[in-house]
Amino acid sequence: MAGDGDGSDSRCLNIVVYHNKVVEEDSSWIVAGWIKESLGRVLADQPMLSGRLRRTSNEDIGDELEIVSNDSGVRLIETKIPITLSHFLDHQLKETSEESEAQLVFW
Asked: Are 18 and 85 in contact (CB under 8 A)?
């Protein structure tokens, strides 16, 4: 696996949340606020969830992964697209999933 030189793997957990507007005038700030508030509460109780994975060598067991809590936090990005989820999924069936998803996310 590729690492960044300090023994850590360059892998992470990416979660994408799709939601529709409740009403047309909705700015989606309420939903984003709920997500930020919920994430903040979870990380206050379970700070290891925002840790980073690092590969270590153990002579008895071999390579292991450990969680390093370095207070680097969680990346949260909000974006909006001018299509519905059903339209996106219909489009995705016509193309490969990698091409479609690459249009929506930066990683």
From this structure: yes
State the Cα–Cα distance between residues 49 and 39, nearest whole angstrom. Answer: 10
How is 40-105 classified by DSSP, letter by letter? Answer: HHHHHH-GGGG-EEEEEEETTTEEEEEEE--S----------SS-HHHHHHHHHHS-HHHHHHHH-
How far apart are the C-alpha atoms of 86 and 35, rounded to whole Å? 22
Whole-model pTM over 0.85: no
Q: What angle do CA 30, 87, 16 make, to 5 degrees?
A: 45
| 52: β partners | 68
Question: Which backbone phi and psi does 7 adopt, to 5 degrees?
Answer: 90, -5
pLDDT per residue over 32-71, tens digit each? 788 888 888 888 888 777 777 778 877 777 788 777 777 6
pLDDT at residue 8 greater than cutoff 60 = no
